[in-house]
């Protein structure tokens, strides 16, 4: 059952949310490691964040990614028990869904230069998104201009004259070209990192992660990334 997994493999877990597409709040990530592999369960270290132990409850359901070499496998799991081995706290995971090889095409990044408008989403607009699954056409907060310098189906990097607090939820507008047609994107994202550029104190480097976006939006961004990569390879070959 667990043949692809290895002891010592990295583990990423998220609290399972059955209404994920209706929630704009960022999910907390739990980082762990495989300690033992049994016949019907996987023993992992209890997560630690900045040196602080995060004790997860027995019965909690998690969406889990298991890293094994160059491959990633995911499954829904439940914490069946907790324990301690020496001075290491552990949790035992049982699968709810079969282990499946995770396709990570959405994480291929493309260096680019795309203009973007970025707007902070307030509580009412978050509620609208939660209810309808789409962002309001008009947002109350003013938009800020930025330049997207790399993009993937999972997020993007923005250079702007503005710094954001971590976990700020924003709406990002930009346009990509796919198969000769323009596609206007209007997507919710959260700030995962925002810092001042060392060579210019007025410019900030912002890293964003898309949240709860539609599968067709992810697929279109992935298509854009691969089309641009193919175009650049052809250009290098002089085709």
UniProtKB/TrEMBL annotation:
Gene3D superfamilies: predicted glycosyltransferase like domains. It comes from the Bacteria. Residues 103-227 form the PilZ domain. GO terms for molecular function: cyclic-di-GMP binding. Residues 27-93 form the Type III secretion system flagellar brake protein YcgR PilZN domain. Transmembrane segments: none annotated. InterPro entries: PilZ_domain, T3SS_YcgR_PilZN. This is Flagellar brake protein.
């Amino acid at each position: 059952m667990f043949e692809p997994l290895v002891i010592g493999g990295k583990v990423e877990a998220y609290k399972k949310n059955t209404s994920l597409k209706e929630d704009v709040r960022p999910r907390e990530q739990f980082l762990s490691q495989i300690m033992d592999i049994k016949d019907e369960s996987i023993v992992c270290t209890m997560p630690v964040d900045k040196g602080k132990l995060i004790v997860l409850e027995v019965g909690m359901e998690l969406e889990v990614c298991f890293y094994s070499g160059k491959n990633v496998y995911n499954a829904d799991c439940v914490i069946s028990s907790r324990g301690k081995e020496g001075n290491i706290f552990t949790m035992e995971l049982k699968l709810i869904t079969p282990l499946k090889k995770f396709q990570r095409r959405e994480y291929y990044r493309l260096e680019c230069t795309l203009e973007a408008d970025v707007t902070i989403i307030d509580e009412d607009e978050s509620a609208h998104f939660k209810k309808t699954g789409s962002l309001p056409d008009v947002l109350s907060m003013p938009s800020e201009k930025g330049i997207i310098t790399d993009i993937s189906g999972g997020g993007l990097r923005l250079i702007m004259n503005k710094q954001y607090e971590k976990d700020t939820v924003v709406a990002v507008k930009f346009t990509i070209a796919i198969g000769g047609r323009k596609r206007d994107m209007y997507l919710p994202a959260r700030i995962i990192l925002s810092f001042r550029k060392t060579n210019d104190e007025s410019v900030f480097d912002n890293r964003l992660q898309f949240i709860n976006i539609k599968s067709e939006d992810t697929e279109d961004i992935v298509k854009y990334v691969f089309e641009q990569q193919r175009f650049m390879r052809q250009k290098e070959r002089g085709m």
